[in-house]
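Filed under: proteins

Residues; backbone shape codes:
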Amino acid sequence: MPIKLDWRFTLLDDIAQVRLKVLLDFARQAEGQFDDAMKAWNEEVTGLTEEQEEMMGDYLIERRDNIESLLDRGYTLGILGLYTFLERFLNEVVGHLRTGGASILPSKKGFNLYQLRTHLQSVGIDMGAAPFDWNELNKFREVRNCIAHTNAWVTDDFAVRLNRFGIQVKLDTELKLPERFFPDCWTLVNDTYQLVFKKAWEQFGYGKQHELWLRPTRPFTDKEIRAILDQAIKEGVAAREKHMELLREEAQRDGQQDEDSCGWAWLEIDPALLKRIHQLDIPNISTSYDTTAIVEDFKLHLKAVSDYQRMSASIRGIEAAATVLEKHGINSTMESMAD
């Protein structure tokens, strides 16, 4: 059974953007308060005599340390918020995949980062491979764990774990985050969530579901394709003519001129089948297949059925042709455009 994600999954992206902006705004606010506090500190120490500096030295140093520690605390809280967001987002993704048909058992407490990587990998989203940066995610996880589990105090265990990722720390001291660690982690989390969302939607969203739905239920020989299209054209022309007759009767009854809107109608079909039909070069049939360009629209034009000056009648004819194709295991969607 294929995995299917519906419109509710797309809401995760909107919610994620809001939450990440809040976290970024929080960090910028902390930076702004730090800049204001440092400006006030610099104004206070400017112009002091040597005697005053000597007398107030300890106080000024302690005050500066307190100002810097407030910024550090703001960043550590930001790290906790970023990591919480990432785990919650990935758990939401896994939940949608499970609801959509993935064989993932639920967890009352939620999955941790390693478990989430395993579950996503089971559906073809490998966070351990490029363009994901699993090493940086793991380093981010260890820093968060030190903040959350020991209040940012470097124990024996965390000294080993953090040094392993190139973060130089001293045992039995407070963890000092590397320069630009928060903004770098924000970018890492932002990139990671977008990659997971994009890959999941590309593989299991409406586009992929439509692609799978369009695939024929069985293979066809060239002879079969010609015969099916011939039948589709005949029934399509008959349906168009029948509708045109109804329009003429209505116009005559109402004392009006026989008119119809102008435009085009066609069928969208499986890209591989469209290529086959293009190569067969069947009279009165054209396609949007182009070997010289990247084609996103896979149009099958039944020129004998579609009449530019009789758009509504042509639509009835194309719909009848689509019914014939469906009977033979070829799904399609009818598209039209008025002129």
Q: What stands out?
A: The chain is about 65% helix and 5% strand.
